[in-house]
Amino acid sequence: MRILDARQMREADRRTIEDIGISSLVLMENAGRQVVAAIEATHAELLGGHVAILCGRGNNGGDGFVIARTLLQRGVDLSVFLLGRVSDVRGDARVNLEILGRLGITVVEIGDSQAWELHFSEIEDAALIIDAILGTGLSSPVSGLLETIIADINASRTPVVAVDLPSGLSADSHDPIGPCIDASMTVTLGAPKLPLVLPPAETRAGDVVIADIGIPDGVIDELDGPRVELLTPDAMRGLVVPRTADSHKGDFGHVLVIGGSTGTTGAAHLAAIGALRSGAGLVTVATSETCQPIVASMAPEYMTIGIPEDADGLSAVAVDRVLDRARDVVALGPGIGQGADTRAFVIRLVDRAIMPLVIDADGLNAFAGNATTLVGREGRDVIITPHPGEMARLAGVSTHDVQANRLAIARDFATTHHLYVILKGHRTLIATPSGAVFINPTGNPGMATGGTGDVLCGMVAAWLAQLLDAEAACKLAVYLHGLAGDLAEAELGDAPLIAGDVAQYVSDAYLDLMSRRKASNQT
What we know:
Elements: E1 2-3, H1 6-20, H2 24-42, E2 51-55, H3 59-73, E3 78-82, H4 91-102, E4 107-109, H5 113-124, E5 128-132, H6 144-156, E6 160-163, E7 185-189, E8 207-211, H7 217-221, E9 228-230, H8 233-237, E10 254-258, H9 265-277, E11 282-288, H10 292-298, E12 303-307, E13 309-310, E14 313-314, H11 319-324, E15 329-332, H12 340-352, E16 357-359, H13 362-365, E17 382-384, H14 388-395, H15 399-404, H16 406-417, E18 420-423, E19 429-431, E20 437-439, H17 452-467, H18 470-492, H19 499-504, H20 506-522
Parallel strand pairs: 2-3, 2-5, 3-4, 5-6, 6-7, 7-8, 9-20, 10-11, 10-15, 11-12, 15-16, 16-17, 17-18
Antiparallel strand pairs: 1-9, 13-14, 18-19, 19-20
Helix pairs in contact: 2-3, 3-4, 5-6, 9-17, 17-18, 18-20
């Protein structure tokens, strides 16, 4: 599902009105009715009390006027407040404002702080406040009366449903640009917006409902500009291909996991289990000769090979021997260590490998400060799976910079190095060589524990071996990884969650998608 900025949203509206022929009044009507439907579905009990609807002078206010009319038809007790003068309202918003007047609804003008103070007690005492003040057009911080209004609403602790965006947020930034409404729920119109799906602004949106107001999917898909998408269950289950009755292990790829060292053999094991649980037909773990017996004893389902060692890690002269055992995909790095010899081994292997690579952890640290050779090339996809610290070392910036500019840094690195970046963390990002970015909605804080990234590395490699499509493999693996964590957290709680639980629940996550697919086919 595509995420739009303010310019793209305006263009989507324009094309729908001018090219498709759906009038702006119809879009506004649809918007207001969809907001009411969302409130009835999630906050119906609040409609039994008084509802205060705060409207701006633009189209967001026009949506609010439609909401008021629709709620009136439902018999809801309500008041409508216009933040400005009636004479300032134009266009479709004015049409719907005048309809309210003909229905006998008094719209209270709030043009200054004195009027706000006079009416705030009525608004504060409402069971529900509907924020239809600003919408997506804001590009600079609110000030003056609007700043006061936002502060008072937030202090009231009355539940707030925001229309399109909580007032004060900008559709172009995931950072709050100034004071903004703390909404209990946001009903966003036509398509999601960046501040609703990325931190820190997402914390101000509450539960997010995406309302279909009649803008055709084709219009949204064809828009120019940055391509940012939200992963959805519908799209992800479309990537899962049921196996045929005559399938055999050779159909589902052979993943070679290269990792593990003294003290971190578990990382290689978790990556291998992640690959097996994600459907790889065969998995082999290549680890140091010292660690091979340990890794081999951890599970009977994967094979192992030993890598000769030098004084400070794996022997770089063994790279060709290891690559001779690689077939479809190599997952490189989980627990492999940071010794000088190991770093040389990693750099040489990445240079010489001709098959797709998924590189994680110490496989990435080998390129810290010198990432120029970490590139994809024609016929060989490279996928990297850094956490913020690893991303910072690759990009030559601080971890703080990465966290403050996650989307831009991931996209820039992916396009510059012609590879796929899976930047892990809350709302894991997938950036592609073409510049597209996908945002994953699954996952939870319980997954912030050692080893979960190793599981993901193996999952990505397994799906790449099966789908033979790097973008699809990244999306499906990341989504299922987060969903597995969510299912585990629901059963075990967040604090007790460990990486092995995530691996164990991969099968439940897969079944969840498959059951959704069957339900969809039946309907």
